[in-house]
Amino acid sequence: MSQTLTDNPVATLQAPQPNPNPGERKGLTKKEIAADHPTWCPGCGDFSILALYFKLIEKRKLWHEKITTISGIGCSSRFPYFVQAHGAHFIHGRALPFASGVSLSRPDLHVFAFSGDGDAFSIGGNHFTHTARKNVKMTLVVMDNQVYGLTKKQTSPTSPLGFKSKTDIWGAVDYPINPAKQAIAVGATFVARTSASNPNHVLATMEAAMDHDGFSFVHCLSECVEFYEGAFDAANPRKGGVFNEVPKAHDVTDELAAYKLAGADFPGNFGILYQVKKPTKNARELEINQAAQSKFAGLKDWQILQKTFDRLK
Amino acid sequence: MSDTVIGAPSAGGAKKVSRISDAVIRIAGNSQDGIQAIGGFLARLAGRSEQEVMTFMTIPSTISGGPSIFQVRIGNGEVLTAGDDADLLLAFYQHSYEDHISSLKKKGVVLYDSDHVTPKPEWETEYRHVGVPISSLTVEAIGGTAKDKGKNIYALGLLARLFDLNVPKLEKLVGERFTGKDPSILNNALAAFHAGYANSPSNLLETFQFADSQKQGSHQVVMNGNEAIAYGLIAGGVRFGAAYPITPWTDIMEIMRRELPKYGGSFIQCEDEIASISMALGASFAGRVAVTGSSGPGISLKTEALGWAVMAEMPLVIINVQRGGPSTGMPTNIEQSDLNIATFGGHGDAPRVVLAPANVEDCFYLSIEAVNIARKYNVPVMFLTDQGIATRIEAFPQPNLEQVCQDITPDFSAVPTYKPYDLAAANGVSPQVKPGTRILDGRYPIATGLEHDELGHPTGSPKLHVQMTAKRRKKLQALADTLPVPKIYGPPEGSVLLVGWGSTEGPIREAVDRSRAAGDSVSSIHLRHVNPLPNGLENIFSGFNRVFVVEMNDEGLYGYGQLGAILRARYCEAKIQGINKTDGLTWKVKEIIEGIKNKLRK
Question: Are B588 and B73 within 8 A, CB to CB?
Fold first, then answer.
């Protein structure tokens, strides 16, 4: 895949030109991509996801300036500091609309948003729904540890019933969200599930997500060894669990089948659960622009505004 | 119509023609009657006739219907306000008649729809009553299916006859309004207009004629404040915006959603207020300065992200079309009560810029300035307009668009090295490099809401927090040094100085004019840059015995409105006091004059 995602910028922003001789510039090494040393606790699943993001950048020969890494607040959301690329560490729960602003005005950039279960499904739940339904082109990786880690063990929207936290000392009483089911229901066009304990699977899933033209959602289990140790053992063969991939016979375009598969009891199945092609918000806005601009071909911006002012006399 | 010159009444009962230089027409009806359309036609006609014009309207916040007025003042001299009292009241219903007759000058003309209004004998001596069965004559003119539709255009015809308005120009305006629609609609409208024009009320013994404008040959555009802001932002180079609908901000987003695609830009309707400012910040981060906007409650919701913009030093323009608050408050009324949230809203020390346009023309030019301040200083700029100026129509000289339109596309050329939060930058103003730009030393910046080092990486260093806090403050102090000292309206010394901000410039100036005409020593200044304040105000204050801050907000716990409190805090000046009101309507000139008198009595 080339460095530019499209030749037609959605906005008139003069997109940076791709290097005319891509061969002259080597892909980045892990050393060049890594920035600050991660501040996560030793043993945190997020290390694995970061390492695989580096690997993705390396493998796909993405350049620093073509990647934007965007996050909200939470353990997972420290992510941009650890990557040598233009990035933004935004406010809690709002990474998706921020990333949408980048995506909709900069078709030349790969937009990655990294989030956690609290950030994406609780405080940012509204944005998860609407970014998915609008099909804004970007990749969202939610590192789900089923607990609030940064604030030290409170119940999260994905904590299972009975999970004992500082805000549910008796065990969680609220029914958890099933992120994949929710994503399918609200119209996401790419929904996949993976686990930090299976690096190859994470990389393959992120790659497929990046290549999806639309909103791609990767639900990635990522264990919090500090506050919810062993949460995902049942999905980890090394801990005596089973890592079942999505059955080969599953039709990823079948919404009902995907919804059923996503709803299977934990640990369920890993891989791409649902993927369909639908015009992106980016493409729709571009169509609107092209139709509007076709009437003003050859005019400078001030001349277009003059036409409007002529009608206001 | 104060300076009416009486023309010679001719013999044989022919009507008297009076030459006038100024007229205030109040149209009262229900909101679905198209009374705003009549006002709009009159305002546009004035603009095309080189006249000054200003309008004022009220709209009910109910979903459909409810009493509504549109007041238009047309004049050949300077028109500063929509007028305290009307020369003519056009009343469609009994409630319009009864509720608004008091807004009419003594001996003013009340033109009423006699199908719906029964005049009160006690008022018939005080005001000149002219009854026309507008509803039934409209139906007669256009046919039985018309019902109530078209009676506004019929009334426009009546007004055209009464004020000897330019018929071909009005016909053209009506034609423009209905272009692209079913031709029968235009035909009906013109039929109604001509029927109204041909009807010469038999009991009306006087018609009026505007004296020739002194501004012959000038080209004017006519629009309301919300339109002027939308087009100002486009001229300023904004190509991305995001927002959520809320009255009275919504017009701006509708215009920009419609217009931006012509320029290759986009305006996105978001799921909520927080998403809107977040998306706009994402776009600003990625390229050009973007815009979001809202009113009252929506601004409250945006404040956390506004704080991020301050911390991350991200340029952004936030339009706040103020309305009555707090909470849902009075959505369709005017108040200037968001100055505190604009200036101080949010947690932490979060300096940001606050601008307030003084009139419709200023909405256009100040929007461009907002864009330029945001991008030069990398700060969020809160643009405080209000419901009054949003819907007020004014004519102003056509801007030279070739000159004012600007391209603010960032430079994406590679840079050797880059520190987004460079502490060595002069005045704390560090230029921005946008995503897509290659940084040759391989060290890439993070835009962040955490306190950070010069590259944007988090730090817990107390020293850096001190330095970065000062950096964010110094930018605004540097901006203050560049701001022009406000011009004094009236002599620079005297007994009373009125200080205003935002949409109240017109009534304050007219209050100064009337006070001076009555022999009182009153001057005024008007602040368009509210945060930071321009330097040198203390020198202006020193020329006056009393300083009264005229604001449409509450006098507060300690007797000063929101700007009043800020000015007192900054200048420790006991002579600063407030003239405030909270009735949700624009200032009447006489209210300000009364306010001055009350304060002087104390």
Answer: no
Q: Where in chain A do CATH 3.40.50.970 domains reside?
A: 22-278
3-state DSSP of B255-277: HHHHHHHHHCCEEEECCCHHHHH
What residues of chain A lie within 8 A of the CB of B287, using their CB? 11, 13, 105-106
Domain A22-278 grouped into CATH 3.10.20.440: no
How confident is the model at residue B113, as a pLDDT? 94
Mean pLDDT for all residues in chain B: 92
- Residue B219 touches chain A, beta carbons under 8 Å: yes
pLDDT 10s digits, A129-185: 999 999 999 999 999 999 999 999 999 999 999 999 999 999 999 999 999 999 999
Half-sphere exposure of B395 toward its Cβ, with a 13 Å CA cutoff? 27
Cα(B491)–Cα(B584) distance, integer angstroms: 31
Determine whether B180 is exposed, middle or buried from the number of CB atoms within 10 Å of its CB (0-12, 13-18, 19+): exposed
A12 and B268 within 8 Å at the Cβ level: the answer is: no
Cβ B356 vs Cβ B458: under 8 Å: no
Residue of B nearest to A82 (CA): B457
Please identify which residue in the block is written with the tokens 């203050």. B480
pLDDT in tens, B50-65: 888 888 887 776 666 7
Chain B: nearest CA to A26, how far in angstroms? 13
How many Å separate Cα A168 from the centre of its chain? Answer: 29
Interatomic CA distance for residues A78 and A92, integer angstroms:
12
Q: Which domains are delineated in chain B?
A: 5-218 (3.40.920.10), 222-404 (3.40.50.970), 426-482 (no CATH), 494-601 (3.40.50.920)
DSSP category for residue A159: P
Asked which of A129-143, B125-139, B176-190 is least confident by mean pLDDT, the reply is B176-190
Q: Does B242 touch chain A (CB under 8 A)?
A: yes
**For B174-201, what is the mean pLDDT?**
86
In the prediction, which pLDDT does B62 show?
Answer: 65
Instruction: Report the predicted TM-score, pTM, of the whole model to 2 decimal places.
Output: 0.93
Q: What angle do CA B417, B422, B423 make, to 5 degrees?
A: 145
Q: Can you read off the two tokens belonging to residue A288? A: 């609107």
A chain contacts of residue B219, beta-carbon cutoff 8 Å = 313
What are the start-end ranges of the E strands in B31-178? 52-58, 67-75, 86-91, 104-113, 128-132
Question: Which of these, A63, A163, A51, A83, lies nearest to A117 by C-alpha position?
Answer: A163
Count Cβ atoms within 10 A of the Cβ of residue B89 and give its class: 0-12 exposed, 13-18 middle, 19 or more buried: buried
Residues contacting residue B592 through CB under 8 Å, at least 6 positions apart: B498, B507, B508, B511, B550, B579
The amino acid that residue A275 corresponds to is: Q
Q: Check: CB of residue A200 under 8 Å from CB of residue A174.
A: no
Residue of A nearest to B419 (CA): A86
Tell me the pLDDT tens digit for each residue of B382-436: 999 999 899 999 999 999 999 999 999 999 999 999 999 999 999 999 999 999 9
- Say whether the peptide bond before residue B326 is cis (omega within 30 degrees of 0): yes
Q: Say which DSSP state A122 is in.
A: I
CB A118 within 8 A of CB B295: no
B578-602 per-position pLDDT tens digit: 999 999 999 999 999 999 999 999 7
- Residue A99 Cα, gap to closest chain B Cα (Å): 6
pLDDT greater at residue B185 or residue B568? B568
Name residue B293's beta-bridge partners: B319
Q: How far is A296 from chain B (nearest CA, A)?
A: 7
A154 by DSSP, 3-state: which?
strand
B267 DSSP β-pair partners: B241
**Cα(A256)–Cα(B196) distance, integer angstroms:** 64
C-alpha closest to that of B38 among B90, B75, B97: B90
Q: Is B440 on the interface with A (CB under 8 A)?
A: no
Residues of A in contact with B44 (CB under 8 A): 313
| Per-residue DSSP letter, B345 | -
